[in-house]
Here is the input.
Amino acid sequence: MRYGYARVSSEEQSLARQRSQLCAAGCDQFVEEVQSGVKARHRLDKLLAGLQAGDELVVTELDRLGRSTGEAVLLMDDLIRRGVVLRVLALPSLDITTNDGRLIADILASLAAHERRRTRERQRQGIVAAKAAGRHLGRPPKLNGQQIAEARTRLAADEAVRVVARAYGVTPKTLRATLAR
Here is the structure.
């Protein structure tokens, strides 16, 4: 069975061009999706789960399959392992069942790995810059300075940890951990 997958990132974009190309490629069934890069792709996930060895997945461009090259390449590897043929209309020479096609896929995988390393490096630099600027990283504290001081006073007056924690909307464990810092 030959399945076509078309995706656009917003309601303002049209699926018509992709639909036309997939129809010309002889797709038996189509799955269309309108979603942004950060949202889940429920229809694609459902399509992928139903693909079997010998099926063919056709997309107009490789980036329709993932938010990044790396994600698309991982998906491509999964399809190969499962015996599903992937056809990318914009890359007619990308036949991942041949040595040349695998070479292209491997180059794309290398580029994806490089992209991930660069992303991690930019993230690390951002964290260093945020720390240098004195910005708090991570989850915001459950209790502010005034609440911590009040909690210490209440506990010093022999009020139960459970009661004090409940008053501030935290668990006793969180209260103890906060006071231990």
The radius of gyration is 26 Å. The first helix runs from residue 16 to 24. The chain has a mean pLDDT of 86.
